[in-house]
Design the sequence.
C-alpha cells in the first residue's frame, strides 16, 4: 500500500510539473503574441494630438523601449508576486478589474456545469441502456446537430425564441449590484442554457461511447450470467469502470465552460472576464489582455491536472500503465 501511495504521489507531482511547464510556455506565447497586435499602444493612449516627444516619454514610462524578452522577464517576475500591472485604459490595478468579472464568469460556468454534467452522464447511460433504440438514435442526432452549430448561433436562437417571441427572459444578461436573486437568475438563464447545450452533446456522446466500450468485458458477461438486467449491469459494473474517460471529458468541458465562455458573454453582453478580455483587446490594454489570458490558461491547466488526479484514483490500471 505504501508503494502504491508513493507511486500515486510521484505521478501527481509529474502531472503538476508538466502543468506548470505548460503554463510557462503559454505565458511566453501570450506575452509575445499580444505585443504583435497591430498599432502603437502609446499612440492609442495619447490620441492623434500626441507629439513625438510625448510618445517617447510614454513608451519609456511603459517600458516599451526595452527589448521584448526583458519586458517578458519583468512581467513574469511581477506576476509571480501577484502583480499583474495597471490597466492602461482605466489606470486601476489589473487585479481589481479582473476579479469581479472573473467571479461573474465562474458563477455562469458553475450554473451551466451543475445542469450539464449530471444530465450528460444520465442521458449517456440511458443511451447505452437502449443502444440502437429510438431514444438512442434521437439523442445521437440531436447531439450531432448541437455540436455542428456554433455557440453564437445557439445564443441568438435562444434569444429569438425565449426573449423576442415568448418574452419570458431578458435578451441581455445585464447584472447590477442591487438586483434580486430572481432577477439575477433570469438574467443568466439564457447564457447558461447556451453553455449547457454546447458542452452537453460532447459529454453525452463520450459517456455513451465509454460505457459501450466496456460492455464486452468478461466481468460484464459474468454479470449477465448472474441474471442482472442491462440497466443494473451498466450502472453497477460498466459505469465505475468507464469512469476515467468520462471524468477526463467532463473536466475538459468544464475547462471550456470557463475558457470558452468568451463568445457567449459577448452575445449576451454578460459582464464576465470574457467580455472584459474582448474590450481590452479593442482598447489595446495589454496588461489586462495578458492577465485575462493567463488566468484562463491557469484555470484550464489546473482542471486538467485535477482530471488526471481523479482518473488515477478512479482507475488503478492507469497507475500501472504509466
Sequence:
Amino acid at each position: 500500500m505504501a508503494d502504491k501511495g508513493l507511486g500515486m504521489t510521484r505521478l501527481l507531482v509529474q502531472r503538476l510539473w508538466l502543468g506548470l511547464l505548460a503554463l510557462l510556455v503559454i505565458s511566453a506565447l501570450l506575452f509575445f503574441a499580444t505585443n504583435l497586435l497591430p498599432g502603437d499602444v502609446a499612440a492609442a493612449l495619447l490620441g492623434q494630438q500626441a507629439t513625438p516627444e510625448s510618445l517617447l516619454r510614454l513608451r519609456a514610462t511603459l517600458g516599451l523601449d526595452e527589448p521584448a524578452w526583458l519586458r517578458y522577464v519583468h512581467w513574469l517576475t511581477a506576476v509571480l508576486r501577484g502583480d499583474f500591472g495597471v490597466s492602461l485604459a482605466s489606470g486601476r490595478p489589473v487585479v481589481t478589474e479582473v476579479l469581479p468579472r472573473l467571479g461573474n464568469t465562474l458563477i455562469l460556468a458553475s450554473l451551466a456545469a451543475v445542469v450539464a454534467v449530471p444530465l450528460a452522464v444520465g442521458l449517456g447511460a440511458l443511451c447505452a441502456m437502449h443502444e440502437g433504440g429510438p431514444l438512442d438514435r434521437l439523442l445521437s442526432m440531436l447531439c450531432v446537430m448541437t455540436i455542428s452549430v456554433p455557440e453564437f448561433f445557439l445564443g441568438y436562437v435562444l434569444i429569438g425564441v425565449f426573449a423576442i417571441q415568448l418574452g419570458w427572459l431578458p435578451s441581455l444578461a445585464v447584472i447590477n449590484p442591487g438586483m434580486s436573486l430572481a432577477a439575477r437568475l433570469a438574467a443568466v438563464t439564457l447564457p447558461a442554457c447556451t453553455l449547457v447545450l454546447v458542452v452537453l452533446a460532447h459529454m453525452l456522446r463520450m459517456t455513451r461511447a465509454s460505457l459501450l466500450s466496456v460492455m464486452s468485458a468478461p466481468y460484464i458477461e459474468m454479470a449477465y450470467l448472474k441474471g442482472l438486467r442491462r440497466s443494473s449491469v451498466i450502472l453497477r459494473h460498466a459505469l465505475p469502470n468507464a469512469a476515467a474517460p468520462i471524468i477526463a471529458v467532463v473536466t475538459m468541458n468544464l475547462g471550456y465552460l470557463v475558457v470558452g465562455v468568451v463568445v457567449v458573454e459577448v452575445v449576451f453582453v454578460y459582464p464576465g472576464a470574457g467580455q472584459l478580455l474582448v474590450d481590452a483587446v479593442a482598447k489595446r490594454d495589454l496588461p489586462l489582455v495578458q492577465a485575462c489570458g493567463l488566468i484562463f490558461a491557469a484555470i484550464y491547466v489546473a482542471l486538467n491536472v485535477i482530471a488526471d488526479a481523479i482518473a488515477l484514483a478512479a482507475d488503478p490500471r492507469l497507475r500501472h500503465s504509466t
Q: What stands out?
A: The mean pLDDT is 78.
